[in-house]
Amino acid sequence: GGVIVASSELGADIGAGGTNSTDPKGYGGKGIVKISGGTITSNTGGIGGGRANAGVGGDSEITISGEKTKIEANSIGGGRSAKRTGGNVTLNVSGGELNVADFIGGGIGGADKNLIGWAKVSISGGEISGRTVMRASTSGGCEFNMTGGRLTSPIQNQPGGAVYMIDPKGVATMSGGTI
């Protein structure tokens, strides 16, 4: 249990550090995050990979569990990038209440916000409000697997609804839960 309120100018609020470097090799850091219980409010940078200015957003591995977990965040997943591709993410959610204002999944990147990171998202429980986004990359095909829980999207007037995948090799499987 416990309460965490976090903010970050460059990195993830909870996860990896970021960079404001103008060098395209200045990547965001990799975040490995495990949350099981408690209340978390992430005010600015989200949870997961670090942000990058000119380089690729940081990758992340995130596990969220516990029915008493409550998370308020801007994003959960790969780090953002201002100019290049957002970071990749492997995300497993088995419980808790998540309210995500922007995105869950691959980091958002590029000036037009169309360079989305690869994602493997597994949801087996929990109440999740957020938009799951993922895009094909050289890392492999995206995966969305839902066996339980509930996923709703607070975002309207944008393509994709609750699950947004651009990947000809991507796989979406739903054997339980509600979208």
Please provide a written account of the structure.
The chain has strands spanning 3-6, 14-15, 31-42, 47-48, 60-77, 89-105, 119-135, 143-152, 163-166, 171-178. The protein is mainly β and 179 residues long. Strands 1, 2, 3, 4, 5, 6, 7, 8, 9 and 10 form a ten-stranded parallel beta sheet that branches. The chain starts with a strand and ends with a strand.
List descriptors.
179 residues; mainly beta; single chain
**Strands, total number:** 10
Instruction: Determine the oligomeric state from the structure.
Output: single chain
The rounded distance between the terminal residues' Cα atoms is 28 Å
Largest sheet: 10 strands, parallel
Task: Briefly summarize what is shown.
The chain is mainly β.
Layout of SSEs?
Layout: E1 3-6, E2 14-15, E3 31-42, E4 47-48, E5 60-77, E6 89-105, E7 119-135, E8 143-152, E9 163-166, E10 171-178
Parallel strand pairs: 1-3, 2-4, 3-5, 4-5, 5-6, 6-7, 7-8, 7-9, 8-10
